Structures are given as structure tokens and as C-alpha cells.
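dumping this here so i dont lose it again. seq + smiles for zinc ion
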Amino acid sequence: MSARIPLWLASQGLYVFPLRPGSKFPFSSCNRCRARNGNEPNPLYVPHKPTGCQCIADGRLCHGLYAATINRDLITSRWERTPDAGIAVTCGPSNTIVLDVDNHDSEHPADGVYVRGERIDGAGFVNGYDTFAALCELRGVNLPWVEHPTLTVRTPSGGLQAWYRVPDGHQWRQGNGVKSGLGWQIDIKAGASFGILPGTRTSKGAYEPLGDTRTIAELPEWLRRELVRAGRWIDPNPRRTTGYQPNMRHARTSSRYVTKAIENELAVLAAAQPGALSETLNKCSYAIGRFVGARLVSESEAQEAITAAAAAAGISPDERKAQSTIRHGLTAGSRNPRTIGAAR
Ligand SMILES: [Zn+2]
Ligand SMILES: [Zn+2]
């Protein structure tokens, strides 16, 4: 391997860095930049942030993915020094995100949730391809790497990584699986995470291109919405406070403590960021539903208060999906009544 592939990637605006030959990991940082030696703390480490580190300014391979560059001279010299180094791209500065579809044995979700907020029967699923196909079917779309051909990589384990461009790479965050990715065995690489490119070979095999497309397509709009819904996008201009003040004092709650606890939940919801809105709405409704279940506040008062807090966060009171989220959350929470005194 030579610098040919990394130089070609850099010409597309992708920030590349080398991986240790035969592995999928970056080179170690220098003594000053390395917090640990294996499991032991490194006594020579000088705590600092990778951004602004002098080593990186000097072209050294410290801080892993932060050493990525589009500087052609630096790339050439790095791969001249280690011609068999693997090739990685850091997502954030490259304005890219990666859909990372896994193919490995892993436990099915114990709660039966394969994509957050959706009912999908995944009992027969084998891997992330099944989750992705189910999500696409649910949204009435084709598989994105088929419908919007883009640079797509087959990993040695048989997984798939489809690269997409975003205009604001630093605003995105990586996430894994059902919890913070798109679903069971679907991870997202973004921001301060990296993807591995063809030209890389590890002990498990080679990373190979899939299909004929070698350029990176724009992120399809439906996927952008899915990723925002999954909380992967961070708003650079969070909304100013709206002046919303939760007020449960007139509600017939049983105590000042309950009033305060509910108001706290409402305040968190009212301040939620767009990317985290539906999750926060769900959590808030569940938390307050526990008070409803304990008969410490009425369901109608709870629903009204949550709707008002959601409106402060930008969710219209007329939005049926939101109202249904609130009802479901309240019902689920009321099945697990809050025991005052025992809790907290
Ligand atoms: Zn260093
Ligand atoms: Zn450093």
C-alpha cells in the first residue's frame, strides 16, 4: 500500500490518519500525550486537550483520530514511513457520518425494542441488516446505500459502513445500537469518531469497497430526521429560555414535595434540545405517570402540564404523535407507582 488511497481521500476533503499495520487502532500517542500505559497510569502524561496539542501541530501521530489531516505532504510522509498502515477517516472535520450496520452475534434486546419508539417484531432478526430493512419498510423507503449510492465499505466481519456527507460535521455525535444509534446492531459514527477505509487489512481480513460508487453522497433527508430523532445532532444555537415556568401549585397534588418533583420534570422537558425532544417527552411523561399511578396527581392535570412544558420546547399541543407519546408515557409510568419516602 502507498499513499495513493489516503491522498485520493484527502482530495475529497476527507481527513485521514494511519492505523497501526494489521490493526484497526491508531498509533500510540507520545509519552507526554498518553494518559495510560496499558492498564497503568503513565507518570509522564501531561493532562491536556487533543485540540491545540503541539504534537499534532508538529505532524506527530498523537491523540489517534485527532491527528487526521488533508495535508498532502504530511500524508505522503506518513505512508512512506509506514506503507502498510491502515487508513482511517475522522468523521467530524470531514463533514461526514457513517451508517455502521453490524453483523455479529449479540443478544436480542430484552425489552423487544429494536428501534427506539417503534414496534418492530425482530424475533427472527439475525443482524443489523434485518433491523435496517425493517426501519426502511416502516418509513416506506429503499435501503439508503441502494437508493442513494455512496462510498460503502464491507468490514472483515461482514458488516457494512455507508458514508454520507453532512454540512456541519462537528455537530454530530456517534451512537450505538438501540440506545443511541439507529437500532439493534446499527451504530452511527460521527463527530469525534472514525471509519476504516478500503486499503486496510487486519488479522480478520480486508476492508473492501461494496458496489461501484467511490464518492460520498449527501445524507438523505429521511435519515437526517432519524438521526436527529436519535439525538445524534447537537444544535449549535440552543434556544434561549422561553420564559416558561412550570407551575403545579394549583394542581391537586398531595404535597409540596410532589409538586416540586413534577415541576422539575417539566422544567427538564421545557429545556430539551430538538434532537432529544421525543425521548425527553417520553421520559418526562413516564416519570410523572409514576405519580399518577400513586394517585398523587390526576392524569388530566398531568397531561395538561406536560403539554404546556412540551409547547415551551417547541412541540405543538395539536401534535397527535406527541399527545400519544404523553399518554403512553403516563400509562407506562402509572404501572410503576412512585413510593414517596422510599424513592430518592
Ligand atoms: Zn504527543
Ligand atoms: Zn498531546
